[in-house]
From TrEMBL:
<feature type="binding site">
    <location>
        <begin position="281"/>
        <end position="284"/>
    </location>
    <ligand>
        <name>GTP</name>
    </ligand>
</feature>
<dbReference type="GO" id="GO:0003924">
    <property type="term" value="F:GTPase activity"/>
</dbReference>
<dbReference type="InterPro" id="IPR027417">
    <property type="entry name" value="P-loop_NTPase"/>
</dbReference>
<dbReference type="Pfam" id="PF09269">
    <property type="entry name" value="DUF1967"/>
</dbReference>
<feature type="binding site">
    <location>
        <begin position="309"/>
        <end position="311"/>
    </location>
    <ligand>
        <name>GTP</name>
    </ligand>
</feature>
<keyword id="KW-0479">Metal-binding</keyword>
<dbReference type="GO" id="GO:0000287">
    <property type="term" value="F:magnesium ion binding"/>
</dbReference>
<dbReference type="InterPro" id="IPR006073">
    <property type="entry name" value="GTP-bd"/>
</dbReference>
<keyword id="KW-0460">Magnesium</keyword>
<dbReference type="InterPro" id="IPR015349">
    <property type="entry name" value="OCT_dom"/>
</dbReference>
<keyword id="KW-0342">GTP-binding</keyword>
<protein>
    <recommendedName>
        <fullName>GTPase Obg</fullName>
        <ecNumber>3.6.5.-</ecNumber>
    </recommendedName>
</protein>
<dbReference type="InterPro" id="IPR006169">
    <property type="entry name" value="GTP1_OBG_dom"/>
</dbReference>
<dbReference type="Pfam" id="PF01018">
    <property type="entry name" value="GTP1_OBG"/>
</dbReference>
<feature type="binding site">
    <location>
        <position position="171"/>
    </location>
    <ligand>
        <name>Mg(2+)</name>
    </ligand>
</feature>
<dbReference type="Pfam" id="PF01926">
    <property type="entry name" value="MMR_HSR1"/>
</dbReference>
<keyword id="KW-0963">Cytoplasm</keyword>
Amino acid sequence: MFIDKVKIRIRAGDGGNGAVAFHREKYVAAGGPDGGDGGRGGNVVFQADTNLSTLVDFKYKRRFFAENGSPGGGGRRSGRNAPDLVIRVPRGTVVRDAASGRVMADLSGEEPAVVARGGKGGWGNSHFATPTRQCPRFSKPGLPGEEYEVELELKLLADVGLVGFPNVGKSTLLSMVSAARPEIANYHFTTLTPVLGVVKVAEGKSFVMADIPGLIEGASEGVGLGHEFLRHVDRCRLIVHVVDVSGSEGRDPVGDFESINAELEKFNPELASRPQIVAANKTDMASSEQLAAFRGYIEEKGYPFYEICAPIGEGIEPLVYAISQKLDTLPPIREYEVDHVPLEERERLARNVFDIHVEDGVYIVEADWLMPALGMVDMDDYESLQYFQRVLRQSGIIDRLEEMGIQEGDTVSILNFEFEYIR
């Protein structure tokens, strides 16, 4: 089963909590805090695998959660870092954030991509000891791991894409120039999934050709399986446009050529401007007048033109040579630019950014970056509350509240945590 587009949910592991512990040893009085740090949560990593050719594995499993880091222990023992969760996908898979559509990773090469980062481990209470706070009874919790719903889209990595109407001979052409064996029959949509073949030109020189299933008018709007097929042309460096020059099915070769190009342009305007070579197939069934008329039209448009008869291999060698020569002048297969900013970086950029507004006499502070600091507050511990107050003071929140006219005894709400303001 060929599946090239799925949605899955991924979640990196949470960081382990820091420990609250105190050194206890015979003959050692007041040993002091020695709580260890929590371990890092596991990342979610995508890795391209050349042995895979479809996303079918994700049809049955759609949730991938990495392990959490272990909590810290006494004696300054750090918690264990969780292992990364590695998800293997076919080469050419693009990972997008389903909510925003941003590209998070392009698995075209061999390098793995960290898509969801595990949370950092929290600090043990040994980090918070100072000359004036010698026995801190609070620690820092681990940060949550990133969680996303992502869309995996497989875009085949081929140098050349064969496009054209159904039953024009694309599969036959691929079978003649490579070891690929697509299904070949005299009816429409014999090929329902893209097929790749390696075309050897000379010793040590080859290129990858993709047989894209037949397109029809309206493909760019999703008619037939248009979108499913067109996405696989997206990365091709060169398009070989196969046309039934004989008009054996009652269609006009010029009309076919223009219709397919119109669908390419509607789907992605850049596709229509990509280099094309026109292969006029079924020349054995065409008259010399038909061939001359179509050749004149194509050459007037500025496209290289080759006559072939795929079933008997006629004209194949010059076509393959022309394709190889053209590929030598073209840039490498396109990779998508990653525009996803990791959560850790977004939090760094948003640090100390906050908003305060008043509703029904309550001062509401919005600052998501305060969540870790708030999570370590122990309401029954004076030193813990003092630490949180100092965070608010250093970030400028208390100064802003005072500028807004807050009075002692007024209520402040931070991330649903309410308290009375005391100077």
